[in-house]
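Inverse folding, one chain.
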């Protein structure tokens, strides 16, 4: 039977096998939620890069550029790390380069997998439906926060585990833990996460609306997938 596993932080990725595996990267607050939103609004591609310098080089080539560090926009770039920034028809058909504190690094670390998908609560069922049809194992890679485990990405992993539990065997305890955590908190995720570290960071910046938005389930059917060095929308 196919297996689903959860890597709680990219710093643990070397402990997980990547062969015959689809990796689903989750950075709920807010990189992967931004990416899903951007594709829902018609962006052509997103190039995830690990460093600000790489992002600047793409910007010089004519890409729209998004850079975030420590939950704030980096000066000199057009786009920030709020999903509401990407709800703009002007991005339709354009190429974006993006670097964030955690999410883009997690994506670039996953390139040896069979496929790399971008997951969020916003496209949770789209991801689950696609994976049910695939023959590969699944690894949910939680972007975390600077190498540390965080609550929101672990909850997403648990939500995906719950939706796939009849199609996949749970590989390790991290998948069991994530599933049980989501089961405990799913009826009120905002309340369940009230004291989470990244919630506190974002609230200090006055962006409660981003938190609420990113925890909504199943808004979009889009699945960003890594093709070479670029994310594109998977064809239906």
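Residues assigned per position:
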């Amino acid at each position: 039977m196919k297996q689903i596993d959860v890597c709680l932080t990219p710093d643990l990725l070397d402990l997980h096998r990547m062969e015959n595996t689809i990796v689903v990267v989750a950075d709920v607050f807010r990189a992967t939620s931004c990416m899903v939103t951007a594709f829902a609004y018609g962006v052509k591609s997103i190039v995830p890069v690990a460093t600000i310098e790489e992002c600047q080089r793409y910007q010089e080539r004519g890409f729209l550029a998004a850079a975030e560090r420590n939950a704030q926009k980096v000066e000199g770039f057009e786009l920030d790390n709020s999903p509401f920034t990407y709800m703009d028809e002007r991005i339709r058909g354009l190429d974006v380069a993006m670097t964030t504190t955690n999410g883009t690094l997690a994506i670039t670390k996953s390139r040896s997998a069979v496929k790399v998908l971008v997951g969020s609560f916003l496209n949770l069922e789209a991801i689950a439906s696609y994976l049910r049809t695939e023959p590969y194992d699944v690894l949910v890679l939680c972007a975390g926060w600077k190498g540390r485990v965080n609550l929101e990405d672990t909850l997403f992993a648990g939500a995906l585990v719950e939706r796939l539990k009849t199609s996949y065997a749970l590989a390790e305890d991290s998948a069991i833990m994530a599933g049980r955590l989501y089961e405990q908190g799913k009826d009120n995720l905002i309340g369940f996460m009230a004291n989470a570290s990244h919630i506190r960071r974002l609230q200090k910046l006055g962006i409660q609306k981003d938190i609420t938005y990113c925890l909504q389930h199943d808004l979009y059917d889009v699945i960003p997938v890594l093709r070479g060095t670029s994310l594109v929308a998977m064809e239906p």
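The CA atoms of residues 173 and 216 lie 26 Å apart. The chain has a mean pLDDT of 94.
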